[in-house]
Structure formats: C-alpha cells, structure tokens
Amino acid sequence: MENLLRPVIVVGGSVLLTLFIGWATDRLLSKADHRHPETPLWGLLRRGRIPYQLVLCAALLRGSYDEARLLPEHQDAVGRTLTLTLIGAAAWLVIRIAGAVVETSYSRYARMHRDAARVRRVRTQVSLIMRVVSAVVGVVAAAAMLLTFPAFRAAGASLLASAGILGIVAGVAAQSTLSNMFAGLQIAFGDMVRIGDTVVVDGEWGTVEEITLTFLTVRTWDERRITMPVSYFTSNPFENWSRGTPQMTGIVYWHVDHSAPLDAMREKLRDILRESPAWDGRAYGLDVTDTTPNTMQVRALVTAKDSDDIWTIRVTVRERMIRWLTEEHPYALPRVNTADAPLPPGASDGEAPGDGAPGLDKTPPRQRRAHEPSGADR
After folding, report:
1. 141: three-class secondary structure by DSSP
2. Would you say the pTM of this structure is higher than 0.85?
3. In the 3-class helix/strand/coil scheme, how is 206-267 assigned residue by residue?
4. Contacts from 25-28 at CB under 8 Å and sequence distance 24+?
5. Per-residue pLDDT tens for 132-165?
6. Where are the alpha helices (DSSP H) in the chain?
C-alpha cells in the first residue's frame, strides 16, 4: 500500500501544488493589472503563466522524485528528462519576462514622445534587442542541456582546445550570415532605416514592415513583400522618404496646346488645392517647363505632409485639371494643327513666300485649292 500511495502523493502533490501556486500568482498579477492600468507590465507578465507552471512542476518533481521510488530502474533517465524540461521551461520563462519588460518600456516611451520618427526608431531597436535576447537565452539553454550529459562534459576540454580553429572555420563558412547580423545591429542602432519608414529600393516604393538580424521586409503599395538582406542597406544607396521630416513635394505634368490659358490654370490649381484635404498649404505653383512644335509642357508643383497624401493630391490635381480643360477650354488640349499657316509679316494674299524662285507655283494655297478642278472636271 505504501509503494502505491507514495508515488501518487509525490506526483499528485507536485501537480496540485503547481496549479495552486500558478493560480494564486495569476490572481495577484490580475489584481495588480487592474490596480495599475497605466502600465501593461502586469498584464504582459500573465502571458508567462504556462512556462512558470512548467518550471514549478519540473522543479518539484525533480526534487521529490527520489522519494517517490517510481521506476527505480529508469531513475537516471527520468531525472535527466525532468532536468531538461526544467532548463527549457526556465529559458522560455526568461524570454517571456524579458519581452514583457521591453514591451512595457516601449509603450511608456511611445506615450511620452509624440515624434513618430523617434518612436519608430525605438520600435526597431526593441524588436532587434528581443531577437538578440531570445537567441542568447536559447543558446545558453541548449548548452546547459548538453552539459547534463556526461559524454559532453568529458569532451568539453577537447572542444575548448580546438575552439580557435573551429571559430576560424565557422567564421569563413558563415561570412555572409555574420555580415548580415552586424548589418542588422548597425541598422538598429545607427538609425538608418526603421520599421514603418517609406523607402524606395530598386525602383519599388513601399513601407518597411519587418527588420531582423539577417533580412528586411518591404511591403509595397500593391501588397507585395520584398525580402532583402540587411547588408544591402549598408552597402547600397536607397531612398528613405521618412528620414527627417515626412513632408514631400510632388510634381504633375500636362501637355497642352500653345494657346492654353495659363493664368486660368493657375487659378484652377489653387481652387483644386483649397478643396483637397491632402494639401498641407505650404506651397504650390504652375510653370511652363518645355515646348514642342505642337504642345507645351506645363508643370504643377504641390506639397503634402507625407508620401500618402502627396500621391493622393497628385492624382486629384491631374484628373480635375484635365476634366476642367475638357469642359471649359477644349481648345487648350493637344491637337494636330491642320489649318493653313499664317503668312509672314508684309506678305499679301497675292504674294506667297518664295516669290521669284524658278519652278515654284506662286499661287497662294487657298487660291490654288479654289482653282483646282473638281473630281467631275478631271
């Protein structure tokens, strides 16, 4: 009877004690969360209740398993399994606690500072710091698990003796990976690019969605994702529209006829901008930038507070100006001129250019068409 009750009491008592301590801790964190709504720390710590209970249960079972006298022939294997579980759960709990502390610090910083650029920079740094912490804790936990095996402890001296050669070999083999990792740290703390920045990379316009130690993801305007190594951003030029102030200047071009009413177009541009909520009111202008034999190029300059608004205002101005020209000034639209050219100054209808040149018909074009025989006469 004692051999039956002993393992039940030890194992069942450990499980029940774990559940009770976990429930009590969760209740305390819940009360603290309701008592201090200004900080999300206590609510975030509640996310670690599962690894917390695993640590408690593994520690209680590991300390009391010898008293249970259960499966004595497999005592070493069960003890090592409990130890591995304890190490893994402790690493999981440390990562959850570190994540809660870092996220709470970021939330507090975001509430205190209204500068969106600085908040995005801190967010990028926080995300990379969490990845580094998770990687370090994972490596330490894996090393601790390996050291629980006697064979690995015995081979530790030889591994340390050859660590220099192995480090050189690993560094050469993982050169690109290491360069990306250092580039990721440079991006995080060098404030080169941040999560949420609007960038143009290889002719693609998009927003930085994710930054890791090895790669960076850009979400384009058409919902595509471009994944690039972070070393690209440290060795190649790229456009960062969110660097400094997000204000932008946009340009809209039209090709119109030489008779287009430029003053009326300037007034219409002003009216369009005043009716558009995307215009920030800083500046606007309309000028002729180029001419061709048939048309002239007109450029409108507009401003907006960010890249999204500059795109909206450009398409709005382009569409409404063309519609207004079509309805109010159709003669100003590009067209192929098929009318007779005006005569030079001093020339009369009876004297055409080139008068006196041999072999030329000196009859004006309009009179020549009037005297041409009709189809029936031909």
Report:
1. helix
2. no
3. EEEEEECCCEEEEEECCCCEEEEECHHHHHCCCEECCCCCCCEEEEEEEEECCCCCHHHHHH
4. 25/49, 25/52
5. 788 888 888 887 887 777 766 655 445 444 445 4
6. 2-35, 41-45, 49-68, 75-112, 116-147, 150-154, 156-161, 163-173, 175-190, 231-235, 262-275, 307-328, 365-371
